[in-house]
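One thing: can you check what follows?
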Amino acid sequence: MEIHIGANSKISQFIAGKSNKIIKISSKKKKNFIKVNYKKLFIFKKILNENKIKFIYFFIGENFKGKSEKKSLYLNYVLPLKILNYLLNSSKSRIKVIFFGTFLENEIKTSDNNLDYKKNKIALRQKIVNLNKKKNFEFIWLKLPIIYGYKKMKPSFVNFIIKNLKSNKIIKIDYKFNTISLLHINDLNRVLKKIKLNWKSYRNKIVSPNTEGPFYLFEFLEAIKKKYKIKNTIFFKNEKKRKKLILKNKIIKIRLKGNYLNFFKKYV
């Protein structure tokens, strides 16, 4: 059995599918979910005692795009850390936990919209690494690029840009030479399967998947414009050139099957 904490997330729902071997925990009321009040965590102790749990995923977290520093701190740092500590104090055996970080952690210059999210993810990662030295658990911190592949896409940087391009609006971007990488949700699922099958190779490490990209942001936008055959004007506030962001963490390599241009052309 596995536990998905924050099972209402798009990634969790896609990965879990109709599996009956995943315990889905969320603050949202939904079919096949265990609805919890995260102020009272006793349900986790009951689940751990009654089930043989192989892996625990933390899907809790959200980028509020600079709109709520307080919510970002709580959801991306305080709450996951609170739940992890409770699990460690409640479990009678060593637990294996998968956390999700972001490629933003490695950015040198980050837009104001992403700064709180990046800062809190880094703080959580550092805390988990330190806890791991003292507590009896194993973890993997998987840094994620932009994940795509949902036919019903929630509002995101990518579909916001594409819709503005298609509507012939003038687009303003902060950093011309920021780096963007992408990964199809099916490829992410394969990465996670590889992690679980080779847990000893990746445990207690910060890892990243290979991706489509990296692209400079202006390269990505030009590829989108060419695919859609549109000619919008794009302004960049900062055009200072920098090296592409290439993560130096342990890379989990798979043969990528996604094609972001074809997907966006069809569904966005």
Q: What stands out?
A: Residues 69-90 form the longest helix (22 residues). Residues 2-144 form a domain with the Rossmann fold fold (CATH 3.40.50.720). The chain has a mean pLDDT of 91. Residues 227 and 262 are 8 Å apart (CA to CA).
